[in-house]
Amino acid sequence: MQSIIKIQNISKQYKGADFQSLNNVVLNIPQQSVFGLLGPNGAGKTTLISILCGIIQPTLGSYEINGISNKNSTSIKNIIGVVPQEYALYPTLTAYENLMYFGSLYNVSKTELKAKIPEFLIHLGLENFMHKKIQTFSGGMKRRVNLIAGILHNPKVLFLDEPTVGVDVQSRATIIDYLKLLNQQGTTIVYTSHLMAEAQDFCTDIAIIDQGSVFVQGTPKELIESVPNAHSLEEVFIELTGKKLRDVV
């Protein structure tokens, strides 16, 4: 399948650091895949996604998204959506007001937003809370509004950082089911998570990254079959990255 993201020898060393956060990363992410970027704390996942979203620049290397060079970051930002782990919402505004605001940042017209926002809220089970303030929402409800804020402009590629962290089982199922629908409709999804069972079920392709380098890339089935006696993605992950704790501050 054709690659929609091509990452070519990207390295990143932050100013003042005595090590590289990313070390010569090469990845090809297939079009319309659900691509899991998995790794322990401090492995380099967030740094790589921040580079692909144009938030920070690589020290070395380059990348393309949908044939657009990273030198043309404005054009790239028009075709990607970003859903951060931290809530990017204003607590004193309603869900509808938040989404109208974030849609305007992507230059989506008010007419289009007024038509689309109720549809998104219905899909994610929030239609009865449209005019409630975000500060009254549960964690799972905030996660779902956070997701909508990243897809109002119909991005070709959607970057998700831990989209189901800290939510209940029902919210997680609703989020994953809707992401699967978006993927079926043509959206490429790049996703980070520490939930190995979720990633095994959700992702079509996976790369495991640690210490700034890509260890392996393949389908969940291929990765499980590549490790003797492994029966799950979690067992593969532990085998490749070890059991040592990776606490970071």
From TrEMBL:
Keywords of the record: ATP-binding, Nucleotide-binding
Record domain ABC transporter: where: 5-236
UniProt key word Manganese: no
Pfam families named among the record's database cross-references: ABC_tran
MF GO annotations: ATP binding; ATP hydrolysis activity
PANTHER family hit by this protein: LINEARMYCIN RESISTANCE ATP-BINDING PROTEIN LNRL
Full protein name: ABC transporter ATP-binding protein
Organism: Paenimyroides viscosum
